[in-house]
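User: Thanks for the earlier help. One more: Glutathione-dependent formaldehyde-activating. Can you show the sequence and predicted structure together?

Assistant: Of course, both are below.
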Amino acid sequence: MEARCQCGAVSFKTPLQEPLALYICHCVECRRQTSSAFGTSAIFPRFQLPETKLLSCYTRPTASGHTLYCYFCKQCGTRLLHTTPGKNVVSVKGGCIDGLDWRKAIHIWTKSAMVPIPEGSESYEEESDYTDYGEAQDLLDQPVDLRGSGEGYWSL
């Protein structure tokens, strides 16, 4: 899948033709990050970053006690990617990807939703045991060396 920031300075292809999972998050942090009613994330196996000289990184603590690394375009400020150390998946912000099927999205943190959740959608009031990526789960849960090689592979 093709992804890019608003100004086009950062563009990349996802490692799969469709995400392992697609989330619409209604938590306060995602609402603030997007300046909207919710945030969207497409989950993919960890892959090489696009041109790192074009990205900046903001870090923040999560409700579960981890640190979230949030990558954005230095030129236009578009948030593009999120990652958490110790996880072999990356969250690509849904709005920067062409061709996502939003009917498959899972709604999370619905207890703080500002808009109605579509009837029949898979949803969770908080962050629950919804992160099951099928057959890829065992591989994805294995820790990796996040220091990387300095070649743009998640050098934190």
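User: Great, one quick takeaway?

Assistant: Residues 2-127 form a domain with the Metal Binding Protein, Guanine Nucleotide Exchange Factor; Chain A fold (CATH 2.170.150.70).
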